[in-house]
């Protein structure tokens, strides 16, 4: 297949491109920065400099590429600008979907997130409602709605990404916060997924039916369980205790549907993944 990867130099994209090429696909990869095109070429893909917030340019790029599938791995979080990231999810996804329709592309795989479910204690499945009170909700809802307009729009609800190049890497933003003692063991759920497993899910999703799929590991965890393990892996001080009697935030997330579709995480638990930080 010919695959158009929007966000080819991002933390998932740069793992996804070689996996797709190795699988025998022809790949076109986008980046907003001309100085990153060489890295795409080195992975044996065709680079395109594109800002998907430019609707006309996006339509032209997709038309020229004439792909069988568009893979949407775009984020805008380098500067931790959540408003910019929400805009990208809303406007950028709209432009990609409109470009797909104009070019007759029926399949799209798009990156969403798994931590916007309505809070609860039982593992969330894809049919459970999302929490409209959370700040990311507007961008996530717009992205998922737009992708859902395509006959074969697959939405990957990633857990918290960890591994090299992520905020949880040894040199990442979250790691620095932990070292400074700025993260507390507040009651709350996190479902993780290693970034390599996120990339393999994107490859597998090329053949999946339309709809959302949770991409998380096998062990959702409360902060009181995973944060001390993470801090120890960084050789950082034990994180301070949070509010013992505060309400538990978030919700554990189930990967049962992804497993039914044939995917499973190669790193089944963050416990094993965090050991690799050392």
From TrEMBL:
Residues of the signal peptide: none
Cellular-component GO terms for this entry: cytoplasm
EC number: 5.1.3.2
Any GO molecular function: aldehyde dehydrogenase (NAD+) activity
Lineage: superkingdom: Bacteria
Keyword annotations from UniProtKB, A to Z: Isomerase
Domain annotation NAD-dependent epimerase/dehydratase: ranges: 3-210
Stated name of the protein: UDP-glucose 4-epimerase
Lineage, top ranks: Bacteria, Bacillati, Actinomycetota, Actinomycetes, Streptosporangiales
């Amino acid at each position: 297949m010919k695959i158009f990867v929007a966000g080819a130099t991002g933390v998932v994209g740069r793992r996804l491109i070689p996996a797709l090429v190795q699988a025998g696909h022809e790949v076109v990869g986008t980046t907003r920065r001309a100085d990153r095109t060489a890295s795409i070429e080195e992975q044996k893909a065709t680079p395109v400099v594109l800002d998907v917030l430019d609707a006309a340019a996006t339509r032209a790029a997709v038309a020229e590429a004439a792909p069988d599938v568009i893979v949407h791995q775009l984020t805008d979080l380098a500067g931790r600008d959540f408003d910019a990231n929400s805009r990208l999810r809303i406007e950028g996804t709209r432009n990609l979907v409109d470009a797909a329709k104009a070019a007759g592309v029926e399949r799209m795989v798009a990156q969403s997130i798994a931590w916007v479910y309505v809070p609860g204690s039982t593992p969330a499945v894809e049919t459970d409602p999302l929490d409209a009170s959370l700040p990311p909700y507007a961008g996530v809802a717009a992205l998922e709605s737009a992708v859902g307009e395509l006959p074969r729009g697959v939405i990957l609800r990633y857990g918290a990404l960890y591994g090299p190049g992520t905020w949880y890497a040894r040199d990442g933003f979250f790691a620095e916060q932990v070292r400074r003692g700025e993260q507390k063991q507040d009651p709350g759920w996190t479902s993780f997924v290693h970034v390599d497993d996120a990339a393999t899910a994107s490859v597998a999703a090329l053949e999946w039916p339309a709809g959302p799929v949770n991409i998380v590991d096998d062990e959702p965890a409360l902060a009181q369980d995973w944060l001390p393990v993470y801090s120890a892996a960084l050789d950082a001080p034990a994180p301070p205790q949070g509010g013992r009697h505060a309400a538990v935030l978030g919700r554990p997330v189930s990967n049962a549907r992804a497993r039914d579709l044939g995917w499973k995480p190669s790193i089944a638990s963050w416990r094993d993944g965090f050991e690799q930080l050392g």
